[in-house]
Design a protein that fits this description.
The chain is built from five helices and ten strands, in the order H-E-H-E-H-E-E-E-E-E-E-H-H-E-E. The model is unreliable at 192-209 (pLDDT under 50). It has 209 residues and is of the alpha/beta class. Strands 2-7-1-8-9-10 form a six-stranded mixed β-sheet, covered by helices on one side. The chain has a two-stranded antiparallel ribbon with strand order 3-6. It has a domain at 2-51 and 105-192: 3-Layer(aba) Sandwich (Rossmann fold), CATH 3.40.50.
Length: 209
């Protein structure tokens, strides 16, 4: 996809942000297509590693994973060392054994809250998946089925609280909307990593054609 190649070129042109690593955050509402986009961007970047924030969350702590991300990924990368990522198993409700996560020219951090206040200073670029909360959540519910409806009720309430207190979209460098074929994307004119920016109507993607 040409649009992914263009975003990949933007990533490559950015400066390292965490030791030798360009950390790229992919944020958005649950169900907005973050995981798929991150995988496709990783492929366009020649196989960049992807850290899924769902692997650091737990049933009891949907968003209280910042210390784990810092200890296991951010701090080691800042020192030029390999991370040690312990993945949470949502079925058995415990973390597995840590596995090495080598630093690479680009590493993508994907998940709700990837652009949160505590993470932004470490990012070279923040991407926001441009889909409204209700549409994203409905898409996620259809994907997961009725068996997880109770989990989704808890998640959406927690996500609303999170983004109310700590929004990501106003600080995004790139807004991405998934189309029927490929993606539409827009680089914010005032884009600069970790800058404090406000949203205006002119920052929005044009409506789908």
């Amino acid at each position: 996809m040409a649009e992914l190649d263009a975003i990949a070129a933007l990533v490559r042109a950015s400066a390292p942000s965490c030791g030798p690593v360009r950390l790229i955050g992919v944020d958005g509402h649950a169900g907005s297509g973050k995981s798929t986009f991150a995988a496709r961007l990783a492929a366009a970047l020649g196989g960049a590693p992807v850290v899924h924030l769902d692997d650091l969350a737990t049933h009891e702590e949907f968003f209280a994973w910042t210390h784990r991300l810092r200890e296991q990924v951010l701090d080691p990368y800042a020192r030029g060392e390999a991370g040690r990522l312990a993945v949470y198993d949502w079925n058995v409700r415990r973390f597995g054994e840590p596995a090495a996560l080598e630093p690479a020219p680009v590493v993508i951090i994907e998940g709700v809250g990837a652009g949160r206040r505590a993470v932004r200073p470490w990012l070279a670029l923040l991407v926001w998946m441009e889909m409204a909360a209700e549409a994203s959540w409905e898409r996620g519910r259809r994907r997961d089925g009725t068996a997880l409806s109770g989990f989704w009720d808890e998640w959406t309430a927690a996500e609303m609280r999170h983004f109310t207190a700590d929004p990501s979209r106003p600080y995004a460098d790139v807004l991405v909307r998934q189309g029927q074929v490929g993606y539409e994307w827009h680089q914010r004119r005032d884009s600069a990593p970790t800058a404090h920016r406000s949203v205006t109507d002119r920052d929005d993607l044009p409506p789908p054609r």
